[in-house]
Amino acid sequence: MPAPLVVGFDLDMTLIDTVPGFGAVLEVLGDELGVAFPVEEMTAVLGPPLDLLLAPYLPADDIAAAGDRFRALYPDHAVASVPLLPGAAAALAAVRRHEGRVVVVTGKYAPNARLHLDHLGLEVDLLEGWVWGVGKADVLRREGASIYVGDHVHDVEGALAADVLSVSVLTGGCTREELVAAGTHVVLDSLDEFPSWLDAHVT
After folding, report:
1. pLDDT given for residue 6 in this prediction
2. Are the CB atoms for 93 and 118 separated by under 8 Å?
């Protein structure tokens, strides 16, 4: 009997368009700290941990506190403005149609990730937050995932480290060429293409 289907998804720029919310929090944080963050530039490369994004603009000793403040500001400024990306709901529904489990494995602070899922009505079987790059592999292996869907080269790294199929979408900051070079197995323009791909994959 084949193992049940378990599909992992990244969150930011894979299922949801985090740019407007992330940018709004940076604006508020920058006002508080007296720092003019280049918001458009920073939101164009979402994916790395927040500390790495803040590092070029703040003294090293201030980064941890700034990250804590960012996460505290997040619920009031970054949830209502963030939409689902095209095909996200249908992608999760496709997994359910094949009697599969949906696990969201994200670098985002888990309580804030949960706010997005609840606000947008996304029902998932597991949410694991604050895991990044190859660290995602532990969760994917533990949950028995066979597919991990993400938008960033570090999502590819996590999938490959877990020895699962890496499916990449072009809705984040990484190009097709970058994702292929990282070793992804499948590149989709968006999650709109995922249901038909999954149907073909599991049959």
Report:
1. 98
2. no
